[in-house]
Amino acid sequence: MSDDRALNDYTLNDRTWGISLARINAMVLRYGYLLKSSWPRLLELVYWPALQLITWGFLQTYIADNAGFFARAGGAFLGAVILWDILFRGQLGFSISFLEEMWARNVGNLMMSPLKPIEFLLALMVMSVIRLAIGVVPMTLMALAFFDFNLYAIGLPLIAFFCNLIFTSWAMGILVSGLVLRHGLGAESLAWTLMFLLLPLTCVYYPVAVLPDWLQLAAWALPPTYVFEGMRALLADGVFRADLMVQALALNAVYFVAACLAFFALLNSARRHGALIQSGE
After folding, report:
1. Same domain, 27 and 55
2. pLDDT tens digits, residue range 201-213?
3. What is the pLDDT of residue 14?
4. For residues 117 and 119, what is the distance between their CA atoms, to the nearest angstrom?
5. 165 Cβ contact list (under 8 Å, min separation 6)
6. Crossing angle, helix 157-183 and helix 223-237, to 10 degrees?
7. How far apart are CA 61 and CA 190, in angstroms?
8. Same domain? 83 vs 123
9. Domain-embedded: residue 281
10. Cβ pair 190, 39 in contact under 8 A
């Protein structure tokens, strides 16, 4: 009896406290294979440190050379923060609504229903605006109450800024949704990270002139760059650059159509590979 109890105690203690390097190695191999099989995870490891360095490095360069700009263009920094949040929250609101269907494994059911893919995208756009309003409107009121910065005082140009930013956010949201649809939830981190790739390139906190010449070409290929340049021109010089808004709108039209075509292509690919039902990682 005592021998059986001692054996049971030994087995319990071995399972509880016994450390096996083989088992540890097996789990490390599992997570390593998971990381290796998901390129978004690998990208994320390098993404954030590089992004922080590039973004704040350019901002430091600009402030060092133009210390009086923010004093002259009152509210330029706060305006940039709010407009950036419109861009980011617009895309995130679109992507989160889509991811909720992925998490619930409901995308396959939706695609088998009478719901058309374009109707699905339009519904996600509406939800994007609703989620954006819930988050950004209180933010603008806080800016007014705490820092005496009234974004709505910009007037009609604010409509042009908003429309161009929301179109960009929808294009990004559609592309991200298509990638997650095709590659599964292993790619869902793109919903939080891909937009931040635009942060240093769209010159949210500094003008395009701060960037190296070769990087300025990439910056001018992005619609939000025109919006942030237009905002600085309006706040610093009191001039509304309608030409910048028109160029941004033209680029947005191209990217929006391209994103929709990519989504439909990825949807068809997901159907062929059975990814609509098996939406795991």
Report:
1. no
2. 898 888 898 889 8
3. 46
4. 5
5. 83, 86, 87, 90, 224, 227
6. 160
7. 29
8. yes
9. no
10. no
**Rounded distance, CA 229 to CA 39, Å?**
34
**Interval 240-264 mean pLDDT:** 94
Of 147 and 275, the structure prediction assigns the larger pLDDT to: 147
End-to-end CA distance of the chain: 49
Predicted local confidence at residue 28, as pLDDT? 66
Domain count, the chain: 2
**3-class SS letters over the chain:** CHHHHHHHHHHHHHHHHCCCHHHHHHHHHHHHHHHHCCHHHHHHHHHHHHHHHHHHHHHHHHHHHCCCHHHHCCCHHHHHHHHHHHHHHHHHHHHHHHHHHHHCCCHHHHHHCCCCHHHHHHHHHHHHHHHHHHHHHHHHHHHHHHHCCCHHHHCCHHHHHHHHHHHHHHHHHHHHHHHHHHHCHHHCCHHHHCHHHHCCCCCCCCCHHHCCHHHHHHHCCCHHHHHHHHHHHHHHHCCCCHHHHHHHHHHHHHHHHHHHHHHHHHHHHHHHCCCCCCCCC
Q: Among residues 66, 93, 65, 70, which one has the least CA distance to residue 81?
A: 70
**Which residue's entry shows tokens 């617009």?**
90
Question: 134 lies in a domain?
Answer: yes
CA distances in angstroms from 100 to 91, 95, 106, 107, 232, listed in the order given: 14, 9, 9, 9, 37
CA gap 155, 132 in Å, rounded: 19
b/e sequence 47-82, b meaning 16+ C-beta within 10 Å: beeeeeeebeebbeebeeeeeebbeebebbbbbbeb
Residue 11 pLDDT > 50: no
Is pTM beyond 0.70 here? yes
Q: Which of 114, 103, 122 is nearest to 188 (CA)?
A: 103
Q: Which domain holds residue 15?
A: 1-37
